[in-house]
C-alpha cells in the first residue's frame, strides 16, 4: 500500500496516467462491447423487441447512475484521505460506503416493483412491446444488488489505484453476460428460449458473478483499506462528503435516462422507429464514451491523492494529459460515425427505415463528440476535487437543460433531425461553461493551460 501511495505522488504523470487509465479503458471497451452485443442479440428477435429494450434503458440506467455515482463519492473521499495519510478515515470511508450501498439495494427492489409498468406505459401503445419491456425491466431493477455492490467495490479499488484488479473483474462479469446472452435468449444447450427475459437474466448473473469475485479477491488479499463493522459508525461529516459528490454524480449519470425519456416522448409523435434509433445510438455511444470515461476514472484517484497531498502542479499535468487522450478517442468515434454509419447500424439488423433514420442521426450527433471532451474530463476533475455541484452543472448542460428544449423547438421545424442537431449544440455550450468554471475555481489553481 505504501508503494501505491508513493506511485500516486511521485511517478511521472504521463506513465502514471497511462498505467491507471489503460486497464479501465480496456474494461470499459469490454463493457461497451457487452452493451452492444446484448442489443444485437435482441435485435434478431425483431424491431419490437429492440424497441422494448430501448424503452427499458432509462430505468436500467438509474441503477447504474446510483451505483456509479455513490461509488465515485466513496472513491473521491477515499483518495483524498489516502493523500492526507489518514488510514483510519480511509477504512471508515470504505466501510460506510458499502453500508450505504446495502440500503440502496433494498430501495431498488421497491422502486422496480412500483415504477416499472406505469413508467413504460407512457411510451408505447403496443401490448407486445409493453410486456417485453416489463419482463426485462422488472429483472434488471429488482435484482440489481449485484450491480450496486460490485460497482461500490470497484470504486473502492479504483480509489486506491488498483486498476488492474477492477479491469479483470469488470471484464469477467461482462464476458459472463456475453456468453449467457445467446444461451438464455434463444434457448441453447438445453435451456428454454426466454427472449428478452433471457437477456435480463444474463445481465444480472454477470453482475452478481463480478461481485462474488470481488469478495473472493478481497478475502484473499487486503487491498490497503479494511472493510469491517468496527469502522461502521454514524460519521455524518464523512457521509455528507460521500453524498456531496455521489448525489451530483448520480444525477449526472441519470441525465441520459431523463433525456431519453423526454426525447422518446417527442420522437414517438413522429414514429416508433425514431425511438429505436435513439435506443441504438445510446448503446453505440457507450463504445465511444466509455473508454474516455475509463481514462477519467484513471485520472480521478491521481487528482484526489495529489490534491490531498497539496501537489497542485501534478493535478494540472494530469488534467492536461487526460484531455489529450480523451480527444483522440472522441476523434476516432467522430471519423467512424461520419464515414461508415450504415455499416455500424447493420450490426443491429437494421431494416431500410431504421437504417435511413439512423445514418442521419449518427452523422449529426457525432459532430459533438470531439467538443464534448472538455465537458467529460472537467466534470471528472470536479468530482475528484470533491466539487460535485460543478460537475452536475456541466452534465446538466450537456445532457438535459439545453438538449430537450432545443430539440423540441427544432423538431417543430426540422422533424427528428432537429433533435439530433440539439446534441452537438449542447456539447459546445457545456464545454465552454466547463472551461469558465475551472478557470474561476480557486483563481484557476487547477486550470490545465497555465504553468
Q: How many strands appear in the DSSP assignment?
A: 0
Please tell me what the overall shape is: globular
Portion in strands: under 5%
Helix content: over 70%
**What Rg do the Cα atoms give?**
21 Å
Sheet of most strands: none
Mean pLDDT: 85
The unreliable regions are none
Order of helices and strands: HHHHHHHHHHHHHHHHH
> How many separate helices?
17
Q: Return the structural class.
A: mainly alpha
Q: What is the compact description of this entry?
A:
The protein has 451 residues and is mostly helical. Helices cover 82% and strands 0% of the residues. The protein has 17 helices and no strands.
Give an overview of the whole structure.
- It is a single chain.
- With 451 residues, the protein is an all-alpha fold.
- 82% of the residues lie in helices and 0% in strands.
- The protein has 17 helices and no strands.
- The protein has helices at 2-10, 13-43, 47-83, 87-120, 127-142, 145-159, 163-186, 196-220, 236-267, 272-308, 312-339, 341-345, 352-365, 372-384, 388-399, 403-414, 416-440.
- Helix 9 (236-267) packs parallel to helix 16.
- The longest helix has 37 residues, at 47-83.
- The protein is globular.
